[in-house]
Amino acid sequence: MQFQEVVEAQGHLIDSHIMEQIFDQVVEFGGRFEVEEFRVGRTNSEPSYLRLKVESTEQATMERLLQQLLGLPQPAYRHHCLILDAAGRKLSKSTEATGLRELRAGGATPTDIRRLVGLP
């Protein structure tokens, strides 16, 4: 399955090498691109315009590529173990477990909750 997004850029794309950088980043991430529209600005004050279709075989790769192209910060992910209650059952909505809101309303501090999920 291919994941596709349309990316648009506007500005001095040629002389600033922005268009070249976009193409290079897509290729670096193992993606493919197809230029759908390109208009060259005819004066120094008229911007160029680029619209291209970007494809990737994996959604996660597409997300990282778009973050890079858009200049967005990379999110900080943290994995934690499955959270269990005192009886060893998983905490989830499906088991009607107590949620964070209820824990906080019941007096649990952020430190208490981090300890509950196994974080320092």
State the gist of this model:
This protein is an alpha+beta fold and 120 residues long. It contains four helices and three strands. It has two domains: 3-70, 2-Layer Sandwich (Alpha-Beta Plaits); 78-120, no CATH class.
The SSE string, one letter per element, is: EHEEHHH
Q: Which strand order spans the largest sheet, edge to edge or round the barrel?
A: 1-3-2
By DSSP (H or I, 4+ residues per run), the number of helices equals: 4
- CATH top level class name of the largest domain: Alpha Beta
Termini separation (Å)? 40 Å
Query: Which term fits the overall shape?
Result: elongated
Number of strands: 3
The main pleated sheet reads as:
3 strands, antiparallel
Helix fraction, binned, reads 25-40%
Return the CATH architecture of the largest domain. Answer: 2-Layer Sandwich
How many whole angstroms does the radius of gyration measure? Answer: 23 Å
Number of domains: 2
CATH topology of the largest domain: Alpha-Beta Plaits
| CATH homologous superfamily title of the largest domain | LOR/SDH bifunctional enzyme, conserved domain
Give the DSSP E fraction (strand runs of 2 or more residues).
15-25%
**Structural class, please?**
alpha+beta
Mean pLDDT: 87
Low-confidence stretches: none
